[in-house]
Specification:
six-stranded antiparallel beta sheet; alpha+beta
């Protein structure tokens, strides 16, 4: 959809069956996309003027600072969505399709899915690359 292609795993080269398809692949690693965003931060700090962006969710312990730059680790509890038109479009692994959630539903869904005792689920934004 967004056409993001970086070195590393894509949905085109993830499995042998995927490699046989004619479709073009896109980057599938959430932390790779987070790394490429030049402007990013906590979702609660996002400017109201920024109405379209990438939305990231992960455990707070999976994001650190290197100087002034936020860096996302490779913990498996992470997900990405595209915020546009008031909806967060994201791939539902359980439904095997892209779904559109309101931002509040997206936040509630992933807080419920990722939160365990002693952890904090955090949401971030990243401007389109």
């Amino acid at each position: 959809m967004m056409g993001y292609e970086f070195a590393g795993p894509t949905c085109k080269n993830f499995t042998w069956a995927d490699k046989q398809k004619k479709d073009k692949g896109a980057t599938i690693r959430v932390d790779d996309l987070f790394k490429k965003c030049l402007t990013k931060g906590l979702l609660k700090d996002k400017s109201a003027a920024l109405t379209e962006c990438l939305i990231f969710v992960t455990l707070a312990s999976n994001v650190s600072k290197s100087g002034d730059t936020l860096v996302m680790g490779n913990h498996p509890r992470k997900h990405i969505g595209i915020l546009t038109g008031g909806k967060v479009y994201n791939y539902s692994n359980s439904q095997n399709k892209v779904v559109a959630d309101t931002l509040e539903v997206f936040k509630s869904k992933f807080t419920g899915a990722y939160k365990t005792s002693g952890t904090t689920v955090e949401f971030y934004y990243g401007k389109f690359i």
